[in-house]
Amino acid sequence: MTRLSAGCSDSGEVTSAMRAPCEGPLRISDVTRTLGDMHIVLAANPQAEQPWVTDAVADLVRQTGASVMVVAVDELESEYLSPMPRSVYTERAEHAAEVAVRRLAEAGIEASRTVLPGRAAEQIIRFASDQKADLIVLGSSVRPVVAQRLLGSVPLTLIEKAGRPVLVVTRPVNG
């Protein structure tokens, strides 16, 4: 079964509306028992393909009958200082969203997709709120540790600020 993790506060609670004790990684079955029927936002990462995230969402949908909305953000705050035009970042985001929707379709799951400009965490939070999502699912950060410290981590920011459950799916261990 795919293993999922959620952010924990210093007191050991899940930092989401679930408010269950945080005793290590969550399993999809734990989430489905807690949340029931859901509207899921899958945040596709334009910086790296993460098919295991889409597979985890497909498992959730099969177990709950949830609906899925895929969102990808171009992650460009301002084109002014960018080394490339916004269109390059937008194309990456469109590709990430399309790959996720296609993978879900191959699993027999219908999903809508949206591509947004701007900062990833802010836009994902806004999109999830607008869509009245019950859950945000995304992959763990692909940035090196130093870059995470300097630029921040989208998964950690979402866990801290989303105001709804956030599941961060890590790369599966093979073998």
UniProtKB/TrEMBL annotation:
Domain UspA: from-to ranges: 39-169
Coiled coil (residue ranges): none
Database matches in InterPro entries: Universal_stress_UspA, UspA
PANTHER family: STRESS RESPONSE PROTEIN NHAX (PTHR46268), UNIVERSAL STRESS PROTEIN HP_0031 (PTHR46268:SF15)
Similarity field: Belongs to the universal stress protein A family.
Protein name: UspA domain-containing protein
Species, as recorded: Actinoplanes lobatus
